[in-house]
Amino acid sequence: MELWKIALLLLASVWGLQSVGMWFQMRHYRSVMGAITDKWSDGHLGAGNARGRLGKGVIAIVCVDGNAVIRKLMVMEGRSVFAKFRPMTEYEGRRLSEVKAEFAKLASQDGRARAISQAIDQLERVKEAPVQDSAQDMAQAA
């Protein structure tokens, strides 16, 4: 077999493996998000992401209650599709504003801090957004 055919076959194989790995990672992401929303349906959820140096990616999920107290903060970071969410229990029970100030200082240097800051910013935007009446939501959906 010619060299270019072998290279093309190898490229297709690697691309297929990457696709399968991404499917597993997205399934893990959806299951974590689903578990959090099932457990705490009365709060708010924010997610943020950052791409670190040398391709190391970070995804952060922050779940807060109605009083802006952190219930759960989870971070997934790594260079491969085998990365999993890890809880950061040291922030659970703290006020969102305290944690925001802590990570805002580090956001320009650290991918993890940048992702958590994005998640907190998303939570603040959701809190500020006007709440629509459920009748309006149903009318708009129809």
What does this structure look like?
The protein is of the alpha+beta class. The protein is 52% helix and 20% strand. It has a four-stranded antiparallel sheet. Helix 2 crosses helix 3. The mean pLDDT is 81.
Q: Can you give me a brief rundown of this structure?
A:
This protein has four helices and four strands; from the N terminus they run αββββααα.
Features:
single chain, 142 residues, alpha+beta, 4 helices
What is the topological layout?
Blueprint: H1 3-39, E1 44-51, E2 57-64, E3 70-78, E4 85-87, H2 96-106, H3 111-128, H4 134-141
Antiparallel strand pairs: 1-2, 2-3, 3-4
Helix pairs in contact: 2-3
User: What helical percentage do the residues reach?
Assistant: 40-55%
The N- and C-terminal alpha carbons lie at a distance of 59 Å
Rg from C-alpha positions?
A: 19 Å
Contiguous helical run count: 4
Got a strand count?
4
> Which regions are unreliable across 5 or more consecutive residues at pLDDT < 50?
none
β-strand percent reads 15-25%
The SS-based structural class is: alpha+beta
